[in-house]
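Database export, one record per block. Field names are fixed; values are copied verbatim from the stored entry.
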Amino acid sequence: MGDSVFYYWLGHTKEQFRELEATLPDFQNRATALGAYLMKLRTGDSDDKISTLLNMSRTKLSKLLNKGRDVMTEHFVPQHLGLEHISRHQVAEKNLYIPNNLFGNPGSCIEDRKAIAVMDGTYIYVQKSSNYSYQKKTYSLHKYRNLVKPFLIVCCNGYIIDVLGQFAATKSDADIVKDQFRDPSQPLWQYFREGDVFILDRGFRDCISLLENLNYAVHFPLSLQPSEFQMSTQNANESRKVSLCRWVVEVVNGRFKRDFKLLRQEYFNKTSKHLMADFKVAATLLNNFHSLLVDRDDAREIVSVIQEKLFTENTLADFIEIHNLNRKRAQFESMTVQINNLNNFPQLEYNDLILISLGIYQIKQARSYYGEHVRQDDNINPPAQFLDNILLESNDD
């Protein structure tokens, strides 16, 4: 089999396959069992199709898949996944420059560095069940589908510390964390120490007080207060800091569904009993063979911009509120792309745009933003006259 065909079906090179095979104990048909299991994870194809490709009966394939899964779970997964395979000190060493400077203790030596972990729950779809109790626990009112929830704990560079679960669809991320830190005998309580940093999303808001009482540093995007219509500049900046570091866990979630098609499909009820075993094997393969995230070349400049502008007042927002411009009707003016009325707009380099947006996400979306506002007749949707009036009034002021 050619190298490209081999990678297409198994998701790994031949060298990686031989390296993986060498970590497993010897047993009959070891290479075939491992290859069949990796092919199942990679393609998500039916057993009938895979057995035909491998020229064997479906019964034999089923036995090989079970053997490959069991051996991987017993001998390979513990070496590359779980709290026992990596020390807290090693987690702290994986802190990237931006999160370590924003939320850690960058001035301390490596031995005293805080461990920073990003947590989030993901989901795997499962079939409806005639077992009513199971059906109620797996039905999500958010997704309107049946699913179970694995829970990820990830380093700043995308390395997966551990995968917990599976949990019911009705169990929130906050409730999962509460159970993991309910008493000192819990593994996570014993693993992390006071002062360590957890970066979370808003779904964890109900467990924030518990983690803070245990003297962990918890950071999550802030929400509007009951009497607020817009977040304050300071709270918005704090939320942006969290988003700047929390996206790592979303990248890892995406890799599961991208590299292992089995995990993006709906699990049959008969096979859902080994769903978490498949998910942990996939996490282990990502840890062992997938490249990790590294610091950006302009990380120091981005941190410098953040620290410089974190407490800067938003003068434009103040001006709009003082003059009640957000409450006035706008007078729209027809505008086309051929009209060049931005002669005074500064010419920015690509690196300047990155430092303004503190990353490339918004820049990648710029084409879509532009396409949203340009019509087929070359007219532009934004209220140009209204914006011009604001700029003129601010200059006069």
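Remark 1: The first strand starts at residue 116 and ends at 121.
Remark 2: Strands lie at 116-121, 124-125, 139-140, 145-154, 160-168, 197-199, 217-219.
End of record.
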